[in-house]
Batch of 2 targets.
Target 1
Amino acid sequence: MTFICRSAARRLALGVALVVLAAGCATAPKKDYAKLVAAQPRSILVVPVVNNSVDVNAPDYFLSTLPVPVGERGYYVFPVNLVKRLLEDDGLSDAALVHGADPAKLASLFGADAILYVTIEKWEAKWVLVSTYVTVEFQYVLKDGKTGATLWEEHQKMEYSSDSGGGGLLGAIVSAAVTKASPNYMPLARQASWKAMAFPGPGFPAGPYRPEHGIDLKQ
């Protein structure tokens, strides 16, 4: 029985490794930055996150991770907690209502040039055989604050599995149970956003507060 479980676990690990390798080798389609360059945004409004997961705490946790990677791209980012509070005072306490509102009117409330909308597709920990797989998945959309046109969008999915640490089958089960009881989503969430906004890569070119602004696209 122990041999069968170990063999199944090895096959699962090999399968996951092959999937990751294949994903890493895949070439992402080149993005069209024409609308983003034409809009020339200087400030980005990060609005509350729509949550399609079952974890009610996920939106607030994830929202707190977004300002830094956006700001590092060279754009002014409005304080997310202040934005959330002001939107609630304006009757937009539900993130779905915010995402469904007119982008131009929303941007005018803060004087923002662009709006970043993010949807949490997955924020979960699942037990598979003798491992727990922690998964986060997000959809990012940047819209023009004047026209509402989509300037940039990206999708990111990150995953990690519990590690037995060389403790054999029992160690793997214990590690999986601990991970399932208290999954650590935040490193994955931060990594997903940094990867989504990295440039060159899937992210958007540097804003006006970085020295490479207007140069990186020509390189």
Target 2
Amino acid sequence: MIKSLGIVLDGNRRFAKYLMKRPWEGHKVGLNKARQAIEWSCEYGIKYTTAYVLSFENLKTRPRKELAYIFKYLKEEAEAILTDKNHIVNKNKIKVRFIGRIHLLPKDVVDKLTSVEEATKNNKNYYLNIAIAYGGQQEIVDAVKVIMEKSMKGLISPAQLNEQIIKEHLYTNGQPYPDLIIRTGGEKRLSNFLPFQSAYSELIFLEKKWPEIQKQDFLNAFKEFEQRKRRFGS
């Protein structure tokens, strides 16, 4: 059974290019698809979902205009969560968290995302992590910094350092590691997504670009996962 799912939402820009549209039009369609995917995960009974939306590297490499549209869509979606009781997040009582170096985003975006976290903090049916300005290596660096600060204060000794302590200082602290990670768009790599947490995750790569994904594609991936025998290094 899948308790925790990771999704790398890849292919929005290529989808737009194929249709001879601008990149941000692909992101808009991708956002609508993400809302559907959350519903599919809930229907399947998956308690925890982590969606990789915007990487730390994307903040440096994507054109400013494209980023501006991405931030615009994020704010619009946040506002929908805050005002629409029929939004999937509200209907399904989903607790939303935004993970990554969120402080690097524009202040108005940060304020909206923080409001969503506050509004959904008491939801307990499902948990959704949205990875924005996220990088797995950066997550580990941030965790190590905090651990080192505690060590300098005498709260943690080097001899105590183990996997559990690192886990407790990751953005996903308190949540299980992903059982399954799905990546769309045809690329077969994780691209700095949950490197610590994904050590024993099952990986499924789909050729379809993210906006093209249908419910049956997800169901097929879930079925394939359940047919695999997980060894956890044994």
